[in-house]
Amino acid sequence: MRLLTPKFIYKIYSKRLFAEIKNKPVPKHIGIILDGNRRASKMMGIDYKTGYELGAEKLEEVLNWCWELEVEVITCWVFSTENFSRPKKQVEAIMKLAVENLRRIREDKRIAKNKVKVNVLGRLNLLPKNVQEEIKLTEDATKTHDKYVLNLCMAYGGRAEIVDALKQILDKMKEGSINFDDVDEELISNHLYTDGIQDPDLIIRTSGEERLSGFLLWQSAFSEYYFAEVHWPLFRKIDLWRAIRTYQRRQRRYGT
Fold this sequence. Notes:
The protein has nine helices and six strands.
């Protein structure tokens, strides 16, 4: 009799989950808060730099899983405006990793093959110059791609995004190109970092924290939320499938 090893059980369960969700409506836009890199590092007995590297590798895996289900837009929060207050060495390590991974994304054949347009959202002027340069190169290299969208939120805060949108609108009001009575929800949406991108259907946060912490504050008004206990570097395919299954079981009423 064949022993049912954990790996074998996981494989069977994963296939069953995928079969359950693949023929039902999947979210067109998934937002992900990548939380728990440092906690996973401590738990695994590794240094935080290695933990961040594992987190970056995990993102590549998760993108493939999402594209397997043809999720059109993925928005990932990788570095907040508040994260600048972390110890200098940690911030420097994250910025170094950002440069390496932006370059890797730009050169990745899967990005070209899947026609993935990459956007980096946030107060990018706060980032080091070399990071800003890599962002521009990556966005320019993928700007004509039109099948999938990958949004990377860096130096991002939900309140900061709304403030920046309002400043743009006020500037246009001073110029006379916008009147006071023109201001409505659509106008504000059109001045957010996500202008032209549909609001997220599902937002996933890892590491057991049950809050958004400012992620896509305006855009998430009617999103479904899923909070996974697992830390980001340890996020598994079945965790994503479970999140999507939970989304499919909910009845979205949009305030009605």
